Model the fold of this input.
Amino acid sequence: MSNATSGEAAQIDGFHLLIEALKLNGVENIYGVPGIPITDLGRMMQEEGMRVLSFRHEQNAGNAAAIAGFLTKKPGVCLTVSAPGFLNGLTALAHATTNCWPMILISGSSEREIVDLMQGDYEEMDQLAIAKPLCKAAYRVLHAEDIGIAVARAIRAAVSGRPGGVYLDIPGALLGQVIDEIEGAKSLVKIIDPAPAQLPAPEAASRALEVIKSAKKPLIVLGKGAAYAQADEVIKEFVEKSGIPYLPMSMAKGLLPDNHPQSAGAARSLVLKESDVVIMVGARLNWLLSHGKGRSWGEPHSTRFVQIDIEPREMDSNVEIAAPLVGDIESCLSALIDGMGENFSQPPSEWIDAVREKRDANVARMAPTLQNNASPMNYAGALGAIKRVIDKKPETMFVNEGANTLDFARSMVDMHRPRKRLDVGTWGVMGVGMGTAIAAAVETGLPVLAVEGDSAFGFSGMEVETICRYKLPICIVVFNNNGIYRGTDQNRSGGTDPAPTVFVEDSRYDMMMQAFGGEGIYATNPDELQRAVTEALESGKPTLINAVIDPKAGKESGNIGSLNPTSAVDGGMSAEALEILKKKAAQ
Done:
């Protein structure tokens, strides 16, 4: 931008320096909510060729930016207003950091001299101090000539080492500052190799191989870090060359197809309890894996772990790691593959046969349950319909959240391609669905199927207007059972208010989509649901399908004890839950 008059040097303002700094480093999409002091910034970004997607709530915009980081390995950018808008985006920033996804939250803020004296400015808040504990790094820019280096530092911090969220504080007055245009151009920084490969130490790779070779019942656990790495061919080569059964965590499903001969997803309880060596690839021994101990695993300290992670401090976080392998996933697995040589001994046939027999028996036992056509639907019937759609359309981006809707779908819906399943991640945050679906459509250009519990949908449901406004190819399926877990709870006081977990009976979520010009469909049985989803994905039109679920079909607590990916017929699901599914399927 030039403000020069005759005889004067051309100048550039903070607005355009920020835009040019982002564009120089490959940032193309901005997710946010306009308002003071960044409304004009959004307009100018759009004018300069960036895609600016305006949401109805900052948390949803932040969730979009977070999952954009996971899908692209570049930081997704969320733009918010000051104070309340910043706070709304902060949950998503912390969510990105917890999940190790690169994201940058850029927020307008009040001027330092007023904030520091607490003089009561509009939306006054020390945002930098609040953000610091909840993200990987936080920076504030006070001078226009520092914008370029600030953006470069934010991007490098977001993607290097273990990725995470970064906060960039932009006081309103900064955007209006002007400097010489030539000096401004010189101040911009194009980062070089922001996330360099980190090779493991040779002795660490040798140690890991010795532990693996000693195993009688080895297991590979693939985490969403393995999916983020985009080292798909190397991961496939390592799994297949080793011959070791693998268990994918939720967002790692599809790195190898769920029907791959080495998949142990449908034998989760067996492999966790009996494995003697576990190779963790981009997965952490947190609550999602019972911290590597407890009832899900075998005798205490009987399992030895090989752990691949780029963050050294992750090692020994819950149990002793026999062979820590610090580095990026592609480099670490390449070192292991090279060390295997041509004559690597695969696991004993007794172990392979035991895993296969358990898996095949469980899959066969569950198959009839997924074929039922009950009306109203139970979870098995409805998810059986979703499964059949994904099996036929494996490139579909599948977004999933809820309680029972999430837990059962993890195990019942097979994935066949990497990074096609997106869900609530490590924190189990409800409300990520619409932001995630929007970013999935924008970043990949593929059709998106978002399967939502009715409670989870309520957190971000107003974004159906955003979906319609941008004409995105998103089909939302709301599993409507009239409440949280179940729609049958009673007010125990005998009063007239509904129970805390009960919603309005027979809510017509499909009409919400119709109100904004999208397609709204009402489905009462799995056959109707499968047809409606298939047609919606093929049409590319914004669609919401209100899938009527039996209010009695849910399970209290959302089956929280089996949040790892597993077959619903495996021991990862309680016997009680399995019996409920069987009875509903038989009705």
Observations:
- The chain is about 40% helix and 15% strand.
- Confidence is low (pLDDT under 50) at residues 561-577.
- The chain has three domains: 11-187, 202-355, 371-586.
- The first strand starts at residue 11 and ends at 13.
